[in-house]
Amino acid sequence: MLVYYVFFFSFFLILFPFLCHMYSLSNKYTSYISYTCGSDRPKLTETYTEDTWLKLRDAVGAIQNSTSIKYNLEELYQAVENLCSYKVSPMLYKQLRQVCEDHVQAQIHQFREYPSLLSFLKRMNRCWQDHCRQTIMIRSIFLFLDRTYVLQNSLLPSIWDTGLELFRTHIVSDSMVQSRAVEGILEQIERERNGETVDRSLLRSLLGMLSDLQVYKESFEQRFLVETERLYAAEGQRLMLERDVPEYLHHVARRLDEENDRIISYLDQSTQKPLISTVEKQLLGEHMTAILQKGLCTLLDENRVTELTLLYQLFSKVKGGLPVLLQFWRDYIKNFGGEIVGSPEKDKDMVQELLDFKDKMDNVAHRCFQRNETFINAMKEAFESFINKRPNKPAELIAKYVDSKLRAGNKEATEEELERILDKIMIIFRFIHGKDVFEAFYKKDLAKRLLVGKSASVDAEKSMLSKLKHECGAAFTSKLEGMFKDMELSKDIMIQFKQYMQNQSEPSNIELTVNILTMGYWPTYTPMEVHLPAEMVKLQEVFKMFYLGKHSGRKLQWQPTLGHAVLKAEFKEGKKELQVSLFQTLVLLMFNEGEEFTLEEIQTATGIEDGELRRTLQSLACGKARVLNKNPRGKDVEDGDRFNFNNDFKHKLFRIKINQIQMKETVEEQVSTTERVFQDRQYQIDAAVVRIMKMRKTLSHNLLVSELYNQLKFPVKPGDLKKRIESLIDRDYMERDKESPNQYHYVA
């Protein structure tokens, strides 16, 4: 017998910690029973079996009725073990189940008389908690039965599972009980959603009960999701009418946070995905278009970064949300940018507005839309779309904007800021299709800056040139680079010319500076014959002889429209220096020979073209620095007007710059520059057609047009291509197929 006791004691020491662990894991009531070695096992008789069972039944009844147990728990445990050892486990299991079932069945009556749903829920929770505590206690007494007979029979549920099954079958599965319980839980959740405080521990316990009993989904979750959908569908429609978009977005975010908190607090984790999906669908999915139509433009106009970030985060959670947001974002950029580009009255500020708009959209894409590549690419496509809706003008204005930043006198920015501005301009420049238009105007403005010496910084000029070269290739900037080379070579030539003049026997009173320009690099200037003073003509001949002596075979063509001079003048107030154009110089020098001249006399003497002369006289007699008097007075120069020298002229500066009218771009110059671009484009189209046909020999019209679109770097209409093809056919570069008019053959 000593061996038996040692074996039994060892078995229990191993089993009991495991038992306690199992109870603690279930978060139920745990009863700790202290056992010692039992006495000799009694002999099995029918009387002993019946007495033992009655003793056990009384103990179970006491537990179920929450009264004190008459017997020692160790004794009860030993009694169960004895019965199991004598092979009466089936009978013991069956009788225990019947006692428990009778008790559970009797509990159903207490749920018939609770008018208040909250009271009903509390009673249900107490019943459930009592049942769990009782089942754990009963299981601890019948543990030997549970761990031997039940464990060996896989078809039999454990004592704990039997308790759950009985409670589910006789209490929770009752239609009235289940209906009231679910209604009560739903009512409490709705109260909480409406802002009231509810007992979350009660809800957590009851929903845990449904989950443990494996009826959570069928009895609660389905109805809960239906009620959630109904609630938020109505709320979404109501609030979309009552609230503005920022307020609505914050409300949606708050609702989602609340529902996530409910999942953490008392709902089953399996409910998270369908619940959040339902809320997102009803508050966002059903109103995506309405939200964007009602509020996106306002959010973007007002740069509401916080709300735009929230909008992106919310829409990213809804199926199809980001594609809809992307389309509205793209349309907004096209519409807003189209208004900037398409309004001629805004031309003066167009480029600055485009830069500001691009900065703003970049900020939104990076800070609010999480640098989403799809949104960034859509923004680029939208910019490229609207900026080319008005052909050529944006390219022209961007060139002028660069000119304003690179021109001397621009004190708005330091070198670092100027570099950042140029980088931003290049971003806008990339969107332009007609880059040749930009090149034409940029080259014309660059020529003015270089020839008049009004470039703010050579480093900035070369930096811009480097950016253009990187963006468009060396061919694009070859002529611009040639202009800089001409200016540097001209400086070297003038050093040599000054040394040459020092060796002349008859030094001149005029200090001449000449810039030698290679005709192919610089803009085309219309030659204008004017009557220069004899001393100027003589000095020109001296320079011509000097230059051609070093570079034979070259031809010099003087461009008076680009000339400027510094004149010394005497007024009553004293001596002044006047910084003027060559045309202004010719007019002022006339007043060394006489007191007063008419418009017609001045034109005859100088040979200046009529329109240019009127602008020149207007600058001298009608501007801020009026060194001439006009009679009669007026802002415009008319036929018959007379001019005389203003001896009473006064100015606080010693050197006075009189605005050079001819250096300002006129409408005619703009048209002329644009026409030259179109002419160059025709040459490029012709060259591309001939190049393609020479390589392919025979080609259909559609394939030829497709090849041209691939090769040409500027926008062109199909009609224009057709005209160039017809022109080449007329000039015998190619011919139509006699049988198929849409087929072309190259003519060698």
TrEMBL record:
The keyword Cell membrane does not apply. Pathway: Protein modification; protein ubiquitination. It comes from the Eukaryota. Keywords: Biological rhythms, DNA damage, DNA repair, Host-virus interaction, Isopeptide bond, Phosphoprotein, Ubl conjugation, Ubl conjugation pathway. Residues 393-621 form the Cullin family profile domain. GO terms for biological process: cellular response to UV; DNA repair; proteasome-mediated ubiquitin-dependent protein catabolic process; regulation of protein metabolic process; rhythmic process; ribosome biogenesis. GO terms for molecular function: ubiquitin protein ligase binding. GO terms for cellular component: Cul4A-RING E3 ubiquitin ligase complex. Belongs to the cullin family. This is Cullin-4A. It comes from Pygocentrus nattereri.
